[in-house]
Amino acid sequence: APRAAMAATQARSDISVAILRGGFQQCMTQLWATHPELIEGVNSERWIEYGRYGLVWAPDANPAAFVAELLAANTPKASEDASA
Q1: For every one of its 84 residues, what pLDDT tens digit does the chain have, with 9 covering 90 and above?
Q2: What Rg value do the Cα atoms of the chain yield, rounded?
Q3: What global pTM score does this model have?
Q4: For the chain: N or C, fewer Cβ within 10 A?
């Protein structure tokens, strides 16, 4: 990553480059408040502040709620059952 950043700044002097360490969660934590345009494809409803961990993917913070949400979304509703 440092070499890619250096090459990018050499190729385009009009851009600023930062190297973020720590994986996607750290990138989210560091960029969310200051540069949301860099992470526009991320579903913001899935990310929450979680104590000392900072910004985390919501299913990691509460896996049981996530599983319940998935099950509810994939269970046919009574009206759909009747029409089948």
Answers
A1: 688 888 888 898 898 887 777 777 777 777 777 887 777 777 777 888 888 877 888 888 888 888 888 888 888 775 555 555
A2: 20
A3: 0.44
A4: C
